[in-house]
Every structure is written in structure tokens, then in C-alpha cells.
């Protein structure tokens, strides 16, 4: 579901209506975000800010040029001839972008985790549990057709963000797309419970650099190993359905929607260039 937008991961560090402001304030925003999970002391906040500033310096010099090059490629794509093979190629490139960032962040997370006290770990786990409980309450009693309606709404919102208002034919495609999606919320609820155990065990061994680093690497780069077989099967089904219908939606784009899409990408490119 979340991968349907061609730039969903490219823009992970550039999101928001005031993207340039956010990008330049990520050190402060990172601390603010972490404080929603665990209260950091002054020394820890300073460490986070300094690490994020160093990360952004690297990101600006090393990553933005890759994004700009990729944006040019996306602008040149012809939506009317876009294929599943094209989608798979773009997804691979986006994963390469995100993996580079994760590889850069990973050792910093290892070092930051060591600085957490037992009380902070407990607070962090409670915060994660609260968020998981909210998700469970939101979805556990919803019938499948209501969940599929939520899928349809998200698909429509994502498409309109990049292409503008949908045509009636596209609305019909979205409805058909969502009806073929398998509901995964019960599986995700079980997965969240499992992951709290995994994360808690990982944090309890945060002073063991080798153990923590190896298991964090698995979490970041091989998350499928933690999925149950039913969830993996449903995800594979939904990804296949989403690829097919996503391509169908893109192929159906009107000339006005294609221009809207290219204008959006040009705006992102201009913003990325201004950050260099």
C-alpha cells in the first residue's frame, strides 16, 4: 500500500508542505520526535542533535545528487507506457536510496541505545505498547469491507497527491483494487505484539555491541524474517495486486494528470537543488 507512490521513500527526509524548513531543522525535529517515545536528558539531546547534523551534512552532499538524478528519470517517464517492469525497477532504486540512509544511521543507533537507562528503556517500551494498543482498538472490530474502504481512501489520496483529481474510471479502478486486497490488520496486531518482545530483548542487550548491531541489522534490512507465514503470504498477494492496479492507474492518467505529476516532481527537484 505505502509503496505505490513512486517517490514515497525518496522523499522520506524531504516530506511536508515546508520541506526545506523541515530538512534544515531535522536535528530539532528528531529530538522532538524521540521525546514522544522517551524523555532524553540534556546530554542525550545534545548527542542526538549533533549526530543528526552530521547525518544531514552527509545526506546533502552525498544523497541529494542521487535523488535529483532519479527525479529527472521519473519526470521523463511516460505514464501511458509505464509497465510492471518499470515499477519494479523504480522500487529497486528507491530501496537502494533508503538502504544507504539506513546503513549510515545504523551505527549511530547502536551508540545511542547504549546511553539509555533501564528506566528509559521501560518508558520507550510503554510508549510503543500504547501506540500498538491504539492501532488494535482502531482495527480489531472493523469488518473486512470497512478496512477495504480505508484502503481505497488511502489509494485515492495518494494518487490525487501526485496526479490530481481522479476520473470516474479511475475511481472504479480504485474500488476494484481495494476489493481484491486481503485484510492484514489482525496479522499486524499479532506481529506488533511479537515485535515488542523482540525489541525489548534487543534493548536489554544494548551494551553487547556485537549482539545489538547484528540483530538491529536484521530488523532494518531483513524484516521479513519476523513476519508470520500468513502475513507473508497476504503481503505477497497484496503487493502483486497493488503492482497490477497501480500500473493500470498510471496508464489511465489524462494529459492534465500527467502534467500535474511532472509539475510535482519539478517542484521536488527545485527544492532539492536549493538545498545543495
Describe this protein's structure.
With 276 residues, the protein is mainly alpha-helical. The protein has one domain. The protein is 78% helix and 0% strand. The chain has eleven helices and no strands. Helix 2 (26-35) crosses helix 3 (42-76) and helix 4 runs antiparallel to helix 9. The longest helix has 35 residues, at 42-76. The two termini are 31 Å apart. Mean pLDDT is 89; it is low at 1-17.
Uncertain runs? 1-17
Number of helices: 11
Count of all domains: 1
Percent of residues in beta strands? under 5%
Number of strands: 0
Shape: globular
How far is it from the N-terminal to the C-terminal residue, by CA?
31 Å
H and E string: HHHHHHHHHHH
> What's the assembly state of these chains?
single chain
How helix-rich are the residues, as a percent range?
over 70%
Mind describing the biggest β-sheet?
none
Query: What's the mean pLDDT score?
Result: 89
CA radius of gyration is 20 Å
The structure class reads mainly alpha
Amino acid at each position: 500500500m505505502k509503496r505505490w507512490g513512486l517517490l514515497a521513500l525518496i522523499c522520506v527526509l524531504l516530506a511536508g508542505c515546508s520541506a526545506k524548513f523541515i530538512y534544515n531543522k531535522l536535528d530539532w525535529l528528531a529530538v522532538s520526535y524521540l521525546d514522544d517515545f522517551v524523555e532524553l536528558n540534556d546530554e542525550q539531546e545534545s548527542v542526538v542533535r549533533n549526530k543528526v547534523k552530521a547525518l544531514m551534512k552527509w545526506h546533502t552532499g552525498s544523497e541529494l545528487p542521487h535523488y535529483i538524478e532519479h527525479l529527472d528519470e521519473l519526470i521523463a517517464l511516460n505514464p501511458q507506457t509505464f509497465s510492471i517492469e518499470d515499477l519494479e525497477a523504480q522500487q529497486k532504486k528507491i530501496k537502494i536510496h533508503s538502504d544507504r540512509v539506513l546503513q549510515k544511521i545504523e551505527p549511530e543507533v547502536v551508540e545511542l541505545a547504549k546511553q539509555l537507562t533501564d528506566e528509559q528503556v521501560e518508558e520507550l517500551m510503554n510508549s510503543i505498547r500504547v501506540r500498538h494498543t491504539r492501532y488494535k482498538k482502531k482495527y480489531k472490530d472493523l469488518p473486512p469491507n470497512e478496512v477495504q474502504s480505508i484502503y481505497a481512501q488511502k489509494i485515492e489520496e495518494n494518487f490525487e497527491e501526485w496526479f490530481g483529481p481522479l476520473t470516474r474510471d479511475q475511481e472504479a479502478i480504485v474500488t476494484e483494487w481495494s476489493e481484491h486486497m486481503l485484510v492484514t490488520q489482525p496479522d499486524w496486531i499479532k506481529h506488533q505484539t511479537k515485535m515488542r518482545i523482540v525489541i525489548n530483548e534487543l534493548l536489554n542487550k544494548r551494551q553487547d555491541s556485537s549482539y545489538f548491531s547484528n540483530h538491529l541489522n536484521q530488523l532494518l534490512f531483513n524484516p521479513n524474517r519476523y513476519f508470520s507465514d500468513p502475513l507473508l503470504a497476504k503481503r505477497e498477494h497484496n503487493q502483486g495486486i497493488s503492482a497490477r492496479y497501480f500500473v493500470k492507474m498510471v496508464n489511465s492518467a489524462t494529459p492534465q494528470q500527467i502534467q500535474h505529476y511532472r509539475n510535482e516532481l519539478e517542484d521536488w527537484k527545485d527544492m532539492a537543488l536549493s538545498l545543495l
